[in-house]
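Input chain follows. Return structure tokens only.
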Amino acid sequence: MGLAGIVLIIIVVVLVLLVLFVIGIYNALIRLRNQVDNAWSQIDVQLKRRHDLIPNLVETAKGYMKHERETFEAITKARSQAMGAKTVSESSKAEGLLGEALSKFMLVVENYPDLKANQNFLAVQEELTGTENRISFARQSYNDQVLFYNNKIQMFPSNIIAGMFAFGKRDFFEIEVAAEREVPKVSFS
């Protein structure tokens, strides 16, 4: 075997290692993208559960809160928008509005002691609270997966492979609620 044969073997070995490297990065990107999709499906399940609980909460309250039509309409409208959201960004915005409507609803409920004592209302409210906690946990998990994925597609050398195979950046699931952004005011007077 001459020098040309050794050079050919080295070139073949380098090409095989390069192909294996590309395959490894590609498979890692696929795994991360699937983890993001799975994390989103977990959020979607909890959001559907939330959307299904809201009509029960509203129906239970309607008997007690006869003069709160605007409150009920706001929740119904926000729920419809949330259920119709197609993208993560749309869902983020719609779920933020739904959260605000539910918060206002719960503030109005404070004016109805009989409703607050109703066992059906308390049961649905407890279910909704549990669901809110599950949504929060699923949202955190999803955002962690999106962070890992986005880092992988933006960092060298995987960004080259990501660009070659059109792996796109994913959006975080951030609920924009004005009340969450405000600094709480404390007063001792």
